[in-house]
Amino acid sequence: MRRLSPNVSCPLQKLRDIGVIFWKLNADNYEHDDQYQTIRRVRGYSYEDLVDIHADRLPGYEEKIKSFYLEHIHDDEEIRFVVDGSGYFDVRDADDRWIRIKCLKGDMIVLPAGIYHRFTLDTKNYIKALRLFTGEPVWVPYNRPECDSRPARAEYVGKFIAA
Ligand code: KMT
Ligand code: NI
User: Fold this and answer.
1) Which residue CA neighbors atom 9 of ligand 1 most closely?
2) Which of 71, 81, 116, 146 is deepest in the core (most CB within 10 A)?
3) Using a 6 Å CB cutoff, which residues line ligand 1?
4) Residue 87 CA, closest ligand 1 atom number
């Protein structure tokens, strides 16, 4: 089920160029962490919940894991702050190649609306992450290639891919 991808080292600037934002934060006591609270405020993240992705605790674990790993987009940002465990976010670069981003405790990542991506656990098979959102959360994935007709995809391409 878990697959290996070429593990290419990627400069942070390359992620920035395709709209991915990344911070290293303190995951212990994050409720009282100034940096975390500032990011929430400045970026307008009003909603927050916690997902615990583990076979024994997440209802529908197998199905969810499978759908996370299908290449998809969202109409909104995907914002995750890892507070325990670890996993991989894969994003497509401007040449449609995968970039694999290992996320560990303390890593906070923002995937822009419309970016092709997928998620998988590593061999520890466990991650716990905060999910943030602006307003009422919508988690709908649109899989590739059907997602290509969505306005969010065109907007993303216009902003980050088309020169
Ligand atoms: C998603 O939408 O892909 C996820 O929630 C993945 C798990 S969060 C680390
Ligand atoms: Ni997603």
Assistant:
1) 129
2) 81
3) 51, 53, 68, 78, 80, 87, 119, 127, 129
4) 9
CATH number at residue 75: 2.60.120.10
The answer to whether residue 6 sits within a structural domain is: yes
Relative to beta strand 72-73, strand 107-111 is unpaired
d(CA 155, ligand 1 centre) in Å: 22
Could you state, in chain order, the average pLDDT of each consecutive group of 10 residues for the chain (163 residues)?
57 93 95 96 98 98 98 98 97 95 96 98 98 98 98 98 85
pTM of the model: 0.94
Does 163 map to a domain? no
Domain presence at residue 57: yes
Which stretches of the chain are assigned E, i.e. beta strand? 21-24, 47-53, 72-73, 78-92, 98-104, 107-111, 117-121, 127-133, 142-143
Compute, in angstroms, the gap from residue 149 CA to the centroid of ligand 2. Answer: 17
